[in-house]
Amino acid sequence: MTTRTTYNTAYTGNDAIPVFISFCVEQYAHEKGLTAPEAMLAFDRNGILEYLQQHYETLHTESQQWLLKDIEKLIQSNTPTAG
Q1: Within the chain, what is the greatest distance between any pair of CA atoms?
Q2: Which H helix or E strand runs over 24?
Q3: What is the CB-side half-sphere exposure of residue 48 using CA atoms within 13 A?
């Protein structure tokens, strides 16, 4: 029988970052009436995952409401306007 582990023992990153990103995805999905996979796709397409990871130290100290507004602004700025 093969045993699988969640983390490779060589992993040296910060476990708080994936937890924070997961929190943001779930909160955004709930706020927008999306499934988590739909929210994750929106984050991926708009560079939000990288943004959250790169700016974790600052962002994780902000309120949930502020984070959701910030994420929405970033997504809207990446959405082409009609016309």
Answers
A1: 59
A2: helix 16-32
A3: 27
CA-to-CA separations, 35 to 31, 40, 83, in angstroms, rounded: 10, 9, 30
Helix (H, G, I), strand (E, B) or coil at 67: helix
| 77 vs 75: CA distance, rounded Å | 5
Residue 24, Cβ density class (10 Å: 0-12 exposed, 13-18 middle, ≥19 buried): buried
Instruction: Give the pLDDT confidence of 6-61 residue by residue, as tens digits.
Output: 444 554 566 889 999 999 999 999 999 999 999 999 999 999 999 999 999 999 99
Q: What is the pTM of this model?
A: 0.76
Residue type, 13: G
d(CA 9, CA 56): 23
